[in-house]
Amino acid sequence: MPETAATHMLRRGRRRATVVLSAVALGASCVLGGIAAAPAPALAADTPSANQTGIVLGVGATESQRILSWYTAVDTAQEVQLAPTAALVDGAFPADALSFAALGAANTTTTGYNRHATLDGLQENTQYSYRVGSDGDWSATYSFKTQSFDGPFDFLFYGDPQIGSSGDAVADGAGWADTLNVSLAANPNAELLVSGGDQVETANTEAHWNNFLISDKLRQYPWAATIGNHDVGGKAYEQHFYTPNTDRTAPYYSNGNPAGASSGGDYWYIYKDVLFIDLNSNSYATSQGGGGDAAHVSYVTDVVNQHGAEAKYTVLVYHHAIYSPADHAKDGDNKVRRVDFPTTFSKLGVDLVLQGHDHSYSRSYEIKNGAKANPDEQPGQEEVNVGPGGVIYVTANSASGSKYYDITAPDNSGTSGAGNGADPLKPQDYWYNSVQNQEHVRTYVKVSVQADQLVVQNIRSGTCAAPNAAVERGKVAWCGPDSGASAAQPVGSIVDKVTIRPNHGDGQDIQVTVPQAAPGEFGWTIDGRNGLVDLGTAVEKPGDYFEAQGQINPIAVTDTRNSRAPWSISASVGDFRDGANTFSGKFLGWTPKVTTPGAGAAAGAPVKSGFDGGDGLSVSRTLGTAGQGHERGTAKLGAGLDLKIPTEVSKGSYRGTLTITALSE
């Protein structure tokens, strides 16, 4: 048996007894934070129900949160059941699995009901399993893993899946699912999936949403949704995605009516060292009642002023690209945003802007206040050391292959501000773009967030072969680099890569990484050999009892935890037995003591033998304690034993078990 508790053996005779105390070890009971360390029994696994659909894991307000959204066919109270995956037994959740209540309402765009729940208090570096529904009506079980809550991380950015835009939603969904599979197979530790908008072609067509949500990757990695112009025309977007810190007031809706038939809202969240701000760029036409660009500028300003100091980088995400190379490059609304947005973004120290809408890839030069910041920056430059106010803008290509836009030509409208003039360094491209690309193959963008740089890569997730719906259905006339003159490059090959080094102003920023301190340990052992404690021969005393005295084997308590949380060691003894004969453990008493100070230890109160009244050690009694904030270290606890045995107890050799329990927060 492990050395974690002590057993005492008593030997005595009818009128002259021999008493021996044996320290045979037994298993200890350890309680942390008031919850027994032993795993809770598992509940029976349920057969998954078909009532819960459209389940999607969303980003939370911080790295310790996730938000789950789903549809249910029944109007019942719904919840999320969550537990560390290691706690599941044969797929069944433990009885102490966490439960998070869901909110929601009836769908306005289809039958059924929408629900969402925020999972809070997640621990880092933990694999979790979850299911949604209610008792007897659970979904299938899915899982996700948290990473370290500090330090470098990668996230993936996807442009315009726009499921249904090729005319074949199933084919579009296949291309989208393949991009998710390819990108996450190559980057399994990516921590966020960030949307460029236009999840679907038609806002309220659930067949499009079903094919968008077909991949289980959207139940395993958090999706940071963005509203596109094809998402905004109904409430399905809001029903499918619940986002954190969202301002759903009138200025952030295109028609100024949150209760109307459109979706909207601006939101923000902080993940590790990045402040992400996501805008509904559809709210730009103030004549329709929305707040327009001025509202978004105000929102970004307020969020950065309030929360910018909590992060090292600021990344903006919205749908309508203001610097892009294809069909939408000269749209009037984008020209307006190209004037309204950049100066504020520069002033606020934004590092990176991620955009969609134009179904092609571009990476801007360093832009400051609506103009190229550094005339010497070369096209395709692989490293950019941005100056004060410098911002890089990236537009993502189609991630599904449902629709591509071909690159368009510059004009003579100017080379700053709203202009679409030519780049003097490469006149076939727009003045603002360092890189422009369209090959009619699926791609995604990988962003590596590091201590003093952002590394942005545009990576091919497909070739000209299926699944590539726009090519398969003849929506485009060619495929491959150089307008189809060259063969398609392999999956995983890089279209563009740039390292962005942020500006540190006129001073010298100094950074140091403080690692997580070792958590330390709390526990106890028998000090030295856990041998026999011999109380000798019980001596008959006046008053009709025998008495034996001695000392327990010392117990060493070690607490090196950084939390310096309170702890206590207590013990109780059961009945003493010799064959069929017994006497109560209440007759054993003790006087605790600290034999070697340390770990903040203080001795428990003396407990008299139950022969003199009371329950003695038959109920749990404190051997030693330490309060909050105590010193770290090791203490040794002891106790003098006082056993008083009524004379009517039969002669024999008796054994009782002292069970020792450690408790700590």
Give the topology.
Layout: E1 6-12, E2 29-32, E3 35-36, E4 52-59, E5 66-72, E6 79-84, E7 98-101, E8 103-106, E9 113-119, E10 127-134, E11 137-138, E12 142-145, E13 153-158, H1 169-186, E14 192-195, H2 206-212, E15 223-224, H3 236-240, E16 267-271, E17 274-278, H4 292-307, E18 313-320, H5 332-340, H6 342-347, E19 352-356, E20 361-364, E21 367-368, E22 371-372, E23 383-385, E24 392-395, E25 422-423, E26 426-430, E27 433-437, E28 443-450, E29 453-460, H7 469-472, E30 494-501, E31 522-526, E32 539-541, E33 545-551, E34 555-559, E35 567-573, E36 576-578, E37 581-583, E38 588-596, E39 602-603, E40 621-626, E41 633-646, E42 652-664
Parallel strand pairs: 2-42, 13-14, 14-15, 17-18, 18-19, 19-24, 23-30
Antiparallel strand pairs: 1-42, 2-3, 4-5, 5-9, 6-7, 6-10, 8-9, 10-11, 10-12, 13-28, 16-17, 20-24, 20-27, 21-22, 25-26, 28-29, 29-30, 31-34, 32-33, 33-41, 34-41, 35-40, 35-42, 36-37, 38-41, 39-40
Protein name: Metallophosphoesterase family protein
Pfam families: Metallophos, Pur_ac_phosph_N
Domain Purple acid phosphatase N-terminal: 55-146
Termini separation comes to 27 Å
Coarse morphology: elongated
Query: Low-confidence stretches at least 5 residues in length (pLDDT < 50)?
Result: 1-39
Report the biggest beta sheet as strand number plus sense, adding barrel if it closes: 7 strands, mixed
Rg calculated over all Cα atoms: 34 Å
Query: Number of DSSP helices?
Result: 7
DSSP strand content: 25-35%
Q: Kindly name the structural category.
A: mainly beta
Number of strands: 42
Mean pLDDT: 91
What is the helix fraction of residues, given as a range? under 10%
